[in-house]
Automatic annotation (TrEMBL):
Residues 229-256 form a coiled coil. Keywords: Coiled coil, Heme, Iron, Metal-binding. It comes from Cladonia borealis. InterPro entries: Haem_Oase, Haem_Oase-like, Haem_Oase-like_multi-hlx. It comes from the Eukaryota. This is Heme oxygenase-like protein. It holds the Pfam family Heme_oxygenase.
């Protein structure tokens, strides 16, 4: 009985053993940073909602720092696809496997760009929705922050991230996979929890007088919603399937670079959220939270709450400690992870 033929990578080289799905590798590699980011988000979220604030100003100020990330990533993606379709991409400035000879470089470019074309789902785009949310919040008069479509004055960490996106994705378009997976899958998973908490604030908080005219809360929260037939599950499944198909086109080096880029993204996102913490006045608290994952407490690896945890309870406004505890347990137990676990 003959043995099955060996599996080959996109370059025709024999693979020693099947690799785990790229999505699994990204998630497992970035998991520690996920915990720090989750803790920061869960700490900041209640500060932007009642009863801790009477209007959406803090929410608008904080979320405006996220807009440049999505707008830069999505603009670069669409620009590259447009240039490729028009035959104007030129040669890649790469080194390594994909850069050995003009012929190979052109072939790799075609393989990757064909895959990215199939991977791109216009319904997932968020920048336009978030910009519209901010504009509507400004027009409603509920936000004291200038939300007339202008993005926030970027801090150094946010500037570094957006500049990095512009610099590297043009040379290595396969790195866009890391952004598509992390930025969109986050909204499908933990984004649901955040959306529910935002909606609980009520129409009066978000819309003010507009709510009496029949205004819908989701008109200012469209960033968190997707148009899908089954509560966005169809879009989520479509993205997963397309991502898995795109993964087959990558070389070993390209795959490693995507994972490295995912690590960079997550580290950068922690820095950006820390800058948001400074904006909403919670810098000290969030730096403490980032340095001490809630995971140990919620997995009951210690019999009694730590002194730090007890101290945090007395620092936080009334009710916030219980809120973070409950939400964090849900996150750590995988009930509503802020980032997708596959």
């Amino acid at each position: 009985m003959s043995s099955p033929p060996p599996s080959l990578d996109p370059q025709g080289h024999i693979q020693a053993k099947p690799l785990p799905p790229l999505s699994h590798t990204i998630n497992s590699t970035t998991q520690p940073t996920h915990h720090s980011l989750n803790t920061l988000i869960l700490t900041l979220l209640p500060l932007s909602l009642p009863p801790h604030t009477p209007n959406p100003t803090l929410y608008a100020r904080g979320i405006s720092h996220i807009l440049p990330i999505y707008s830069t990533f999505e603009a670069e993606s669409k620009s590259l696809l447009h240039l490729w379709e028009a035959g104007k991409m030129g040669d890649w400035d790469e080194k390594g496997e994909a850069g050995k000879g003009d012929g190979r470089r052109r072939r790799r470019r075609e393989v990757v760009m064909q895959g990215l074309k199939k991977l791109w789902i216009p319904e997932l785009e968020r920048a336009g929705r978030l910009r519209g949310d901010l504009e509507r919040l400004g027009k409603s008069g509920r936000s004291e922050f200038d939300t007339t479509g202008k993005e926030a004055v970027a801090g150094p960490k946010l500037r570094a991230l957006t500049r990095h996106i512009e610099e590297v994705t043009g040379r290595k378009p396969h790195l866009l996979l890391a952004y598509m997976w992390l930025l969109y899958m986050a909204l499908f998973s933990g984004g649901r929890y955040i959306r529910a908490r935002l909606r609980e604030a009520g129409a009066e908080f978000w819309m003010g007088g507009e709510s009496e005219k029949g205004g819908d809360i989701d008109e200012v929260l469209s960033f968190w919603t997707f148009e899908g037939q089954e509560d966005e599950e169809d879009l989520k499944a479509d993205l997963k399937q397309r991502f898995a198909e795109m993964e087959k086109r990558l070389t070993g080096q390209e795959r490693e670079e995507v994972v490295q880029e995912a690590t960079y993204i997550m580290d950068s996102m922690v820095g950006v959220v820390e800058e948001i913490a400074e904006t909403v006045g919670g810098e000290d608290l969030c730096h403490k939270a980032a340095g001490r994952s809630l995971e140990r407490h919620n997995r009951a690896e210690i019999g009694e709450p730590s002194l730090w945890w007890l101290g945090l309870k007395h620092v936080l406004p009334m009710g916030m400690f219980e809120l973070i505890t409950g939400a964090s347990k849900s996150v750590m137990m995988g009930i509503e992870p802020l980032y997708e676990k596959v």
